[in-house]
Amino acid sequence: VPGGVEVPVETDDIDHFGNRRLRTVGELIQNQIRVGMSRMERVVRERMTTQDVEAITPQTLINIRPVVAAIKEFFGTSQLSQFMDQNNPLSGLTHKRRLWALGPGGLSRERAGLEVRDVHPSHYGRMCPIETPEGPNIGLIGSLSVYARVNPFGFIETPYR
């Protein structure tokens, strides 16, 4: 830079947990309900144009089947929905605290390199470095650490710095 001070610029680390946001179960279900409601809205608008104005009642206009179908589709066919492991209370708790980097909007087993699977310094206090499956999912599935929590914005917080 002529006549100025050159300042080194650090690039963002894509593997840093400060740059990663979790999509919670509530957010995923909310998205599915939004899809179902938009389908239902389209059906209601269609029926309003075809039916007689004096004969219209809410019961004839509104059909909740699109919303129910969208929710059933999520729980029945989504990669992010699975039966909870309820063999014992500890396995159920572990299942609830599990973190996935796979699925829609995430990575695939084939594309994930070693850098993504490795333990990053930002995982300290946020994600357990030991509890990960062996095999093709190693490093892609993990668990929250003991004192970690997810804030309302979807970022993992920890009491440690």
From TrEMBL:
Give UniProt keywords alphabetically: DNA-directed RNA polymerase, Nucleotidyltransferase, Transcription, Transferase
InterPro entries the UniProt entry points to = DNA-dir_RNA_pol_su2, RNA_pol_Rpb2_3
Name the Gene Ontology molecular function terms of this record: DNA binding; DNA-directed RNA polymerase activity; ribonucleoside binding
Q: What is the E.C. number?
A: 2.7.7.6
Q: Name one GO cellular component term.
A: DNA-directed RNA polymerase complex
Which EC class is this protein assigned?
Answer: transferase
Give the GO terms filed under biological process for this record: DNA-templated transcription
Presence of the UniProt keyword Transcription in the record: yes
Q: List residues of the RNA polymerase Rpb2 domain.
A: 82-150
Q: Kindly indicate whether the keyword Ribonucleoprotein belongs to this entry.
A: no
This one is known as DNA-directed RNA polymerase
Q: Which gene encodes it?
A: rpoB
